[in-house]
Description:
Blueprint: E1 50-55, E2 61-62, E3 77-81, H1 88-96, E4 127-130, H2 132-138, E5 144-148, H3 158-171, E6 176-180, H4 184-196, E7 199-205, H5 210-217, E8 222-226, H6 230-242, E9 249-251, H7 257-262, H8 265-274, E10 282-286, H9 291-305, E11 315-321, H10 326-333, H11 358-368, E12 372-375, H12 377-391, H13 397-411, E13 421-425, H14 433-436, H15 450-455
Parallel strand pairs: 5-13, 6-7, 6-9, 7-8, 10-11, 10-13, 11-12
Antiparallel strand pairs: 1-2, 1-3, 4-5
Bound molecules: pyridoxal-5'-phosphate and zinc ion.
Keywords: Lyase, Pyridoxal phosphate
InterPro entries: Ser/Thr_Dehydratase, Thr_synthase-like, TrpB-like_PALP, TrpB-like_PALP_sf
Protein name: Threonine synthase
Amino acid sequence: MRRKGLACMAVHTVGTTDTTENTGNAGNTGSAAGNPGHPQQPGRVDLGPAAALSCRECGHRTPLGPVFACAECFGPLEVAYELPAGDPEALRERIAAGPDNIWRYAPLLPVPADVAEKPNLNPGFTKLIKADRLARELGVTGGLHVKDDSGNPTHSFKDRVVAIAVEAARAFGFTTLSCSSTGNLAGAVGAAAARSGFRSCVFIPHDLEAGKVVMAAVYGGDLVGIEGTYDDVNRFCSELIGDPIGEGWGFVNVNLRPYYGEGSKTLAYEICEQLGWRLPDNLVVPIASGSQLTKIDKGLKELIALGLVEEKPYKIFGAQAEGCSPVSRAFKDGHDVVRPVKPDTIAKSLAIGNPADGPYVLDIARRTGGAVEDVNDEQIVDAIKLLARTEGVFAETAGGVTVGVLKKLIETGQLDPSGETVVLNTGDGLKTLDAVAPTTGPSATIRPTLASFREAGLA
Ligand SMILES: *Cc1c(COP(=O)(O)O)cnc(C)c1O
Ligand SMILES: [Zn+2]
């Protein structure tokens, strides 16, 4: 069997603590800790429609708990549901009557039914911008939308995944929230912990952009820079989970990863609802670990299965930076394993050299008829400016990657511009000012006189 995803990581488990202070947790039974290889008492964990964890490789089911790898085959676990049956129109109405954030989809997420009443950051329901001017520049004739996740509480898509992980952390009785981060996740965890009453301690590569470091530190939790790449940070966190130091710690993207990942489904739900409960033809999605892309596909499939949208083919395209493009490389070479790389790109939020979900991304791109492409740093900067100039959206480097890749996919005939297309912007340009600062600035600096203005050639 081909080894996939998290199978390459060591399996560690975390015992839940019976400390429930700070987490606002009343329902913890203290028996939810998963421990692969050992019998486990099923906990009375209320995570709404989430029924169990199931292995993406062999289908083996495990009770809900803070585990991420299958006890049978070490494959990655994901949340399995008992989703609401019945009239799709009634479900659409129930969703539409919900709050203007991701909790409108609570019936489809691993969260308790009263989640919207708990203290959290309420991310989501960000703008879907009809991008006619960008479409004209790129030659898209079938309609182009930008899903702009810079509007989330900490200005990246990461607030979605963290909000779901927080509910799992409450349910399992964790008291500290943690993560390995390329920058945005650290800020999202810091803010969510502050709001929800957890301690936080987050880990980043030491050389991130100032905007990301400040955002991660300002919420008052502990922020630790690690001398190494993201992949070193991630390996360190795996070690911490296996050590007594990590007891009571919920690492949102490691031992809570199955729950965390589900937050990305809300991007699929929102895009379809905002299109009037329709599937687009093409989606262009950035790839760091590949989690977001795989869960967008999962969300779209659920909407079809529930009858919330009419079934039709859709294509998912993955976007990477050339300086960290292991999935794009494997796609182009026709491989189904992803060979790790050492990242070197200005798109630091996507700089994961050993992406856990890479093989699943390849499956989805191939199955849906999409592709995986990459663009270089110069093309990323050009695309940031193109999006800003045409639509008034200032994207971080990850948004430059998706818009740049969309342009390249059209130019190379890989994406049909007569289809309705959605391109994701997952972060805010204010966090990566350095990427554009050297080539952006005032048109002129003048004395405060009309003559001086005329001299500058701007009249
Ligand atoms: C984390 C992140 C992504 C996607 O990450 P995955 O690990 O692939 O889910 C995309 N854009 C930005 C800005 C991010 O911070
Ligand atoms: Zn398995």
